[in-house]
Amino acid sequence: WRFLHPLKSGKCRVVFAGPHFQAGLASTKALLQRSQDLRNGIELMHAPTKAELVAAASTAAIAMPFMEHFDRDFIRAAPRLRLIQQFGVGLERVDMEEATNQGVAVSNVPAIGSGNVR
What we know:
The protein is an alpha/beta fold. It contains five helices and five strands, in the order E-H-H-E-H-E-H-E-H-E. It has helices at 22-34, 36-41, 50-57, 72-76, 96-101; strands at residues 12-17, 42-47, 62-64, 83-87, 105-109. Strands 2-1-3-4-5 form a five-stranded parallel β-sheet. Helix 4 links the parallel strand 3 and strand 4.
C-alpha cells in the first residue's frame, strides 16, 4: 500500500480539483499559513479545469475532487496518488474499483467546518 512507503520527493502535493467549494481550499491555505511544519511539507495546487487537473495528476499525492469526476483515466494518470479525499458525503464520482486496483485510499469528511457546509 502506498502509505507504507514515504514520499520520494520533498513536498506532499495536494490538488484541489474543479471550480466548486473554494471555501475548502481557502480554509486549507489558512491552516497551512498557521503551521510552519505543515507549510514546509505540503504544496497546494488548484486545478479548476479538466486540462489543469490532467496536468497536475502525475505529481499529486492527494487529490480532492470537489464534485469533479475522478475516473479510471485520471487515477491511472496519477502514479504518485495515495489518497482521494472528498469534503462532503458523496463518493459516487470516484471510480472506487480503479482506486482500489491502484492502491489509492478513498475517504470523505462529511462535517461542518470542512468548507462544504455553512
